Amino acid sequence: MTYCVGVTGGIGSGKSSAAALFAELGAGIIDTDDIAHELTRPGGLAMPAITAAFGTGIVAADGSLDRAAMRKRVFNEPAQRKVLEAILHPLIRAEARDRAVRSTAPYVMLVVPLLLETGGYQDLVRRVLVIDCDESDQIRRTMQRSGLTEEAVRAIMVAQLPRQQRLDRADDVLRNDADIARLRSQVAPLHDRYLKLAVAAQNPQ
Ligand SMILES: Nc1ncnc2c1ncn2[C@@H]1O[C@H](COP(=O)(O)OP(=O)(O)OP(=O)(O)O)[C@@H](O)[C@H]1O
Ligand SMILES: [Mg+2]
């Protein structure tokens, strides 16, 4: 089992950007959002169960999950959302674990947006890295990238852990409040630390 660092942070905080910088230095990346997409593409492993639970109305013409239709079905419907999560989350976890086992990288960054909210990765994640920035940066970056309104971004943020609670549970924090060069300069020393921790974990005293 490859040493796993769990990477989390609020929407638009810079999780993917930070993980990519670690990967430049040789870390592996396992991104649970990517896995969720793969599970719900045409022929995806989650599609039979999702179709059985929600009907063909949430299947796009190509056989993939119709994300817009699914969003409508679970919007303000916590019970429905739970049904979807009960299908997806175990499959995502199993695939993440599989990739961690198979990885040949010295350690992997396991990117899980709701790592601290949903749990379920305690057995895999040896250390928690939180990507942190001001709410105003989060909102601006997410709006720029996704075209969501400020109201829509805030609605997503409300469902996530408050910033201080997330920070309280971090082993390491990357402040992403300046440019990417500044983020990169913080990544290098952490990468060295993770290499050492991964080696130590493989050679217990
Ligand atoms: N330090 C930075 N300076 C400028 N732009 C940044 C910085 N960090 C991230 N961004 C940009 O902000 C957006 C969000 O960053 P990123 O996708 O890394 O965040 P994320 O936490 O993975 O978001 P999500 O929760 O949606 O997966 C991207 O368009 C990214 O290029
Ligand atoms: Mg991301």
Describe the overall structure:
The protein has a five-stranded parallel β-sheet with strand order 2-3-1-4-5, sandwiched between helices. The model has no long low-confidence stretch (mean pLDDT 95). It is α/β, with parallel strands linked by helices and 205 residues long. The protein is globular. The chain has ten helices and five strands; from the N terminus they run βαβααααβαβαααβα. Helix 1 crosses helix 10 and helix 2 crosses helix 5. It has two domains: 128 residues, Rossmann fold (3-Layer(aba) Sandwich); 68 residues, no CATH class. The site of magnesium ion has 3 residues, from helix 1.
Please give the structural blueprint.
Blueprint: E1 4-8, H1 15-24, E2 28-31, H2 32-39, H3 47-54, H4 67-74, H5 78-102, E3 108-111, H6 115-118, E4 125-132, H7 135-146, H8 150-158, H9 163-168, E5 172-175, H10 180-202
Parallel strand pairs: 1-3, 1-4, 2-3, 4-5
Helix pairs in contact: 1-10, 2-5
The protein binds adenosine-5'-triphosphate (ATP) and magnesium ion.
What is the level-2 CATH architecture name of the largest domain? 3-Layer(aba) Sandwich
Under the CATH scheme, which class of the largest domain? Answer: Alpha Beta
Oligomerization status of the protein chains: single chain
Question: How many discrete structural domains?
Answer: 2
**Which strands sit side by side, in order, in the main sheet?**
2-3-1-4-5
What would you call the shape?
globular
Low-confidence stretches: none
In total, how many beta strands? 5
* Helix/strand order, N-terminal first: EHEHHHHEHEHHHEH
Task: Estimate the mean pLDDT confidence.
Answer: 95
CATH topology of the largest domain: Rossmann fold
Q: Strand content of the residues, in percent?
A: 5-15%
N-C termini distance: 18 Å
Structural class: alpha/beta
Helical content class: 55-70%
Taking the sheet with the most strands, its summary is:
5 strands, parallel
Could you tell me which ligands this complex binds, including any ions or cofactors?
A: adenosine-5'-triphosphate, magnesium ion
CATH superfamily label of the largest domain: P-loop containing nucleotide triphosphate hydrolases
What's the helix count?
10
Task: Please give the radius of gyration in angstroms.
Answer: 18 Å
